[in-house]
Amino acid sequence: MDLDALSGVIAYKHTGESVTTVTAAVDRITINHPLKELCDLELSGQVTFATGRSSMEISIQVAKAREEGASVQKKEDVLMTCAFTMVSLDPNTKKPVAICPVKVETEEEKNLFAEGEKNYNIKKARAKTGLRKQTPNDEESDLIHAMWLRQLEYHDPNNPLRKPPNTYYMSTTTLSSSQIMQPQYRNRHNFMIFGGYLLKTTFELAFCAAAAFSHSRPTFLSLDPSTFENPVPVGSVLYLKATVAYTEPAANDDTSAQPDNQRHQRDHGSGDQDGGEYTRIQIRVDSKVRDIEHGSTKPTGQFNYTFLVEKDISVMPQTYEEFMIWVDARRRAERVRGSIDGVRGGNGGGGAGTGGGGWATDDGRGARVTE
Question: What is the pTM of this model?
Fold first, then answer.
C-alpha cells in the first residue's frame, strides 16, 4: 500500500491538484536483495516516462536508509524495485486528460526514459500476441498434447504409470475469498477503493494459496505486470480466486532470496528439507467486483505472483481453460526468469531501476520524492 501511495504523491507533484490521478497498472515488483536485518527503510521514486498523454510511468525503489553523510546509494542496499503506471483524469468528466511530458537532460534521465518507452512498447506488443488474440504456438501445442497423453496413461488400468504424489491437478489448488469494500480504504478524490489495498488483498490470498499448495512458507520473488481493469466502489463485494497456474524447478540463485534462518536450516541439515529441491510457483489471482444493488459483476484485474518454496512439487492442468492458464503462466514465467536473472546480474529491474549512484542525486528536473 505504501508503494502505491508514494506513486500517487509523485504523480500529483508532476501534474498538480487540478486533475484526478488513479493507478492504472503495476508494471513489476521485484525483490533485488532480501532484508536480513532490522533497519530503517527509505522509499523513493520519480516520474521516468511521460510523453504528454494521460499516463505516466513512476519508478520506485525500497532501500536501506543511507548512512548520515552518504550521498550515493549502495547497490546491495536496494531491496526492491517496482514501476507503476498512473493515469490522470478530468475530475468532472472522469475522462483521461493530457499532462505535461517529463523533461530529460542528464544521461541517467535519458536512460530511464528510454527504458520506460521500451516497457510501454513491450506492453503494446504483448497485448497483440496474447492467447485471446492468437492460438498457442507449435511448442506450446506439443506440450499440451504431451500432458494430455500423460493423463490418459495415469487413468489407464492396464498401464502401471500413476500420477506422482508431488503432482497436483490445477483444479485442487484454488483458494477463494470475498469481502465488502469499506470506506476507510477509498481513494482521496472519490469513493473508489485504493489500488494499494487491492494489491495487499490479492498478495495475501496468493501467499496463502502458495502455502496451502506446498505445505511450506513461500518466499516472494516478484509480481508480474498487472492492470486495474475496472474501479472497485465502496460498498461493493470483491471476489478473489487464487490458482496455482504454473510450477518449475528453481535455479540455485533463487535460494539467495530466502531469509538467513531458512538457508541455515537447509545448509546444516535441519528442518523439512524435502530432498533439498526448490520450486518456483506462479499464483494467478483473478478478481471481480459485484454491485450489490444492481447485481452486475465486472472483472477488476488479474494479478500474477511468483514465489519460491523448498519443495519438489508441480501442478498439472486438465481442462482446456486450465491449459490456457498454464500456457499464459509459462510465458510469464519465462519473462520473470529473465527479469530476476537480469536484476541479480546487475542489469536493472525492468524499468524500475536498480539503485545505482545516479538515484541519489536530483537537480529538480526529475522531481524525485523520498520518504
Answer: 0.76
